[in-house]
Design brief:
This protein is α/β, with parallel strands linked by helices. 45% of the residues lie in helices and 12% in strands.
Length: 327
């Protein structure tokens, strides 16, 4: 069981879970480049899993492994049941104790569990006893700046049987604002004996390197940095292994990835839902070019697949023309 953890840590890079984002489609796009980094599903509610056993959120492909299935909830028995149900699909069960979203926290899930560490420990114990694969926990620095209990919390997770920790270097109160405080992770790393992955604001090779330097973590978990750049986990992985910086994707490459992303979401969910699902990502894929805001505003209004393809091709040609005119 420990072998999978060793393999994951040897690569130093993982894809962090993102609700509504890290579905099978995005994971497959990341896998086109990185064949071995750990990838994590979007958050799966242990409550909802009682009623839905065959939906897009739990589907996996042949290329997903190594994969962690992330579950959320606050009832140890239900969390154990969810973990057991997902065990055959997963290489790791990851427990969400870091989500800061209001509706999640108000239900006692996500980062709310940092305020009830004994319950959090019971959850980890229950999940650990239910499965025969490694268990990881993702949490934050604390609920507020006045209650940064992440070191003690991490120690409790280790005592409960967690094999791996991922920590987002912000408090729940910060949500995603401000800067992730990577240096604080070092204190946690020095006070637990299990591997620690650092998460938050890793958006480039440079930030990954700086994060590892300040945190002394065993690796980085890349979240929002992968949006619009599915090559990032691989490029970070390659740099940490070889010291070579591979080039970022060109705009043409990003549009190609966006088109594949769109096509595969439609294949998975149907045209109407697939197009709506991808809308939140347009801004990431077309950022950094002239008229990006205008293009995004145009794309989010399109509901027809063929019209979308025409619009993307026109945008591609316009950006090329702009680039040539600026030479």
């Amino acid at each position: 069981m420990k072998d999978i953890i060793k393999k994951i840590i040897s690569k130093k890079v993982s894809l962090a879970p993102m609700a509504g984002i890290t579905d099978m489609v995005l994971r497959n796009l990341v896998r086109e480049y990185s064949k071995t980094c750990l990838i994590t599903t979007e958050m799966i509610s242990s409550e909802g899993l009682r009623n839905v056993h065959d939906c897009a959120i739990i589907k996996k492909s042949e290329t997903d492994s190594p994969i962690a299935y992330q579950i959320s909830g606050h009832k140890p028995e239900l969390m154990a049941q969810a973990a057991k149900f997902l065990e055959s699909r997963a290489d790791i069960i990851d427990i969400n104790m870091g989500c800061p979203v209001k509706k999640v926290v108000c239900g006692g899930d996500g980062s709310a569990l940092m305020k009830t560490p004994k319950l959090a420990q019971e959850i980890v114990k229950a999940v650990k006893n239910a499965v025969n694969i490694p268990v990881s926990v993702k949490f934050r620095l604390g609920y507020t700046a006045d209650d940064m209990n992440y070191v003690e919390f991490g120690q409790l997770m280790q005592e409960a049987g967690a094999d791996l920790i991922t920590i987002h270097a912000r408090t729940r109160a910060q949500m995603y604002s401000g800067m992730a405080d990577w240096a604080k992770i070092k204190l946690l790393k020095n006070n637990v004996n299990i591997p620690v992955l650092a998460n938050g604001d890793v958006i480039s090779i440079e930030t990954a390197e700086k994060c590892l330097e300040l945190s002394e973590a065993d690796g980085v978990a890349i979240g929002r940095g992968v949006l619009g750049d599915v090559t990032l986990p691989y490029r970070v992985e390659h740099y940490l292994e070889t010291g070579e910086k591979l080039p970022e994707q060109s705009f043409d490459d990003k549009l190609d990835a966006l088109t594949r992303h769109l096509e595969n979401e439609i294949s998975l969910r149907g045209v109407n839902v697939g197009i709506k699902c991808i809308r939140k990502l347009y801004g990431y894929y077309i950022s950094g070019v002239r008229n990006a805001a205008k293009y995004r505003a145009e794309l989010v209004r399109i509901d027809d697949y063929s019209e979308m393809l025409k619009a993307l091709e026109r945008i591609r040609l316009e950006v090329r023309q702009f680039s040539l005119s600026e030479v």
